[in-house]
Amino acid sequence: MKEFINSIRIFLIYRTYKFMVIFERIANKGFALDIFSKKFQKDPYQTYSKMRSINPIYHSKPTFLRWVTKMHLVQQILRDERFSVDDRKYPIAKLRRKELKRDGRDIMLDQFENPSILKLDPPDHSRIRKLVSYGFSNRYIKSLENHIIETIDQCLDHTHNLDSFDLMEVLAKPLPAIVIAKMMGLPDKDLNQFQMWSENLLQEVGGIGSSVKKRKLARDAYEDLIRYFEKIILSRKDNPGEDFIGELIKAEEEGDKLNVKEMYGTCLLLLIAGHETTTRLIGNGLYSLLNHPDQYEMIKKDYLLIPNAIEEMLRFEPPVHATVRFAYADMEYEGNSYKKGTPFAISIAGANRDPEANENPNEFNILRNKINHVSFGYGPHMCIGASLARIESRLVFEKIFERFPKLRLGDELPKWQKNFIFRGFENLIIKTR
Ligand code: HEM
Fold first, then answer.
1. Which of 24, 85, 366, 410 has its CA at 20 to 30 Å from residue 13's CA atom?
2. Which pTM value belongs to this model?
3. Residue 14: predicted pLDDT
4. 2-431 adopts what CATH topology?
5. Does the beta carbon of 377 lie inside 6 Å of ligand 1?
């Protein structure tokens, strides 16, 4: 019954949204941002460009968001303390609390009230981020290289006599979860279960019109993972070890340490922030490259081009398209007044394609000289796992180019997922001969 009522609720919200889009289109002489439309899913960049030309801080009433699509404004907002990430402080929190209470999601509600660094403003953000960064030392991340290479090989081993296969299924989805499990020192016997939870967790984040069933899967996985991490952390208290969880337990800065809740919140964040994103970088990146065969041929002859190509892949088809900030208090910004709690969609993808930030922004060019992107964010919340993502994707590309010299895209065009936060494919069929 609860699920039926939820389905009706989602349906009504969707219908109201669609009506609002119609009104916006009339008011804007033919233009409206419709994040649910097929056109937007296929090519959101035209829409970002149109919004930028109408107003770089575009007010979209159907999404209740101000969309920021110019690079210099995006960078300014992401480092400006008047824009906050902590949604507990704003009216929107009421809805979230009500929804989680109604669904009996006590663990998620507790996480909402005690968020990880991604949703914390200073001073808590700065304090916890400093402690978390102990687990991300360059030395430690570098030490994972051999494990990453072995895992890529294992994932690809059973493809050697296949004419074609789905890169997402075989490699791009499992690899980041396995690497994060290794990084955290999780027992091998838990790997299958951990991968399943990680997959299910992604069913909801930013998903457009996720079904009630998918949402339940994601929320069950979220709560199971919290219980799991809590158990692992408590069992390691007296013998922390040398991996990421060990470093979190040992981390200390001027007498300050992380408590258990902060530790398991951080573990869950790593999985949410580091899994889907890296999966998308591999899928979107390879797709962009194979769509430009001349550039693929250049890379095959010179693997030293791979790191610059990865930056261009990140710029051109970023795995994270947008992040959100709230006005910390009533404020004036760029000539407009905003009320406390006004939500802003910071369009990473829009900024990357701003012609003032990159020349010919709609052209994919792995030889581009100065690549200006915010695909790992900017300012105090800038991605803490960027070097891991860069190493992982470099090793993936080196391995697949070496193993499959005749690599090309399959005949069927992949479909972009219905998701306006993460951009990527469900499947990406590649031919190997
Ligand atoms: C291609 C891969 C990745 C992309 C595109 C990406 C993108 C981002 C972005 C855009 C942010 C900033 C969000 C904001 O300001 O609201 C961020 C933050 C973060 N990322 Fe990543 N990320 C990637 C991989 C990873 C990996 C592999 C990990 C860890 C295993 C990770 C962990 C984090 C964490 C913990 C934060 C929060 C930092 C903070 O709030 O201080 N990310 N990431």
1. 85
2. 0.94
3. 83
4. Cytochrome p450 (1.10.630)
5. yes
